[in-house]
């Protein structure tokens, strides 16, 4: 029996647009039990030529230069927001008012006030909403979650989240939108620190208080149009000590100034009886230590067996998967939740919770004191 079609509109078509459109294209091809058949209807962006090329390349039926028109269309079911942070609020409010299902890139917003408005609007409209923190959906991360929830490493004492990149270490690297507060909200903090915080919330629990430190090493950079220099008003690096509500303590570090580290997203969690370690650059593996006896030590589990989450739909054991699959799994879980009438996670509530932590870190960096979330 043919599955009900679900018409998808994507706003934005750069890096995240490529990743999300790939997920929308692939998900029904691999997950046979998917309750819907996503149809890539329309992709939207400001530059007519570029967005029409993107439509052709990504497999969308049409392109548009007006997100206002797109969200108001009666034939669309899902609005997927892949734009920079400064446009999330109006697009989400428009899409919620039109009753659409929404998938939004992280961080949810550029401020707590915006995040709260988006959460409230989505809840009031009764729509299904999800935030894309894709790393939750690496099978090895899901395995870590299962091991922790089963109590196998005991009460958690430490969370160590590290997200290191090096793409702006050259002072001549231009001042792209991610380095402008008005567009991106914050720098490494919101872009990659938010992922480490999300993984901490997912695996350990809610964060109660923080002590934060932000630094901008290069304060001016060449403008992209060659017209001179522009101020960098976001952080290049962000560090925080965090205290979880359940008594665990942790550290989170996000930086774009770690030469050689390209997308080093790693966490280590230490419990009373064991530890788990994940490193995105070896994303099919989970290092696990469980006290077993005099010769116990870390073992590396290749999380590619049929029993591991999501894997059965892909390849035989040992035939590893990659970065793009985390987005496919995100879309899969959104569609499953939509079908079952349950809330997917992370959703805009999680987005607000994450934003509250980002905000506390920013406040603490200014006050030089611990701040409540
Ligand atoms: C750029 O720093 C970036 O693409 C982030 O925006 C993503 O969220 C992260 O997953 C990889 O790095």
Which terms summarize this structure?
373 residues; alpha/beta; Rossmann fold; Dihydrodipicolinate Reductase, domain 2; globular; binds alpha-L-sorbopyranose
Return the CATH topology of the largest domain: Dihydrodipicolinate Reductase, domain 2
Q: Judging by the overall fold, what is the CATH architecture of the largest domain?
A: 2-Layer Sandwich
CATH class of the largest domain: Alpha Beta
**Low-pLDDT windows of residues:** none
Mean pLDDT reading? 97
> How many runs of DSSP E, i.e. beta strands?
17
| Number of domains as seen in the coordinates | 2
Number of helical runs?
10
Structural class: alpha/beta
Structural shape = globular
Strand arrangement across the biggest beta sheet? 16-15-14-13-7-12-11-8-17
How many whole angstroms does the radius of gyration measure?
21 Å
Please indicate the percent range of residues in DSSP E strands (runs of 2 or more).
25-35%
The distinct bound ligands, ions and cofactors come out as: alpha-L-sorbopyranose
CATH homologous superfamily of the largest domain? Dihydrodipicolinate Reductase, domain 2
Helix content: 25-40%
Order of helices and strands: EHEHEHEHEHEHEHHEEEEEEEEEHHE
Span from first to last CA?
Answer: 49 Å
Describe the largest sheet. Answer: 9 strands, mixed
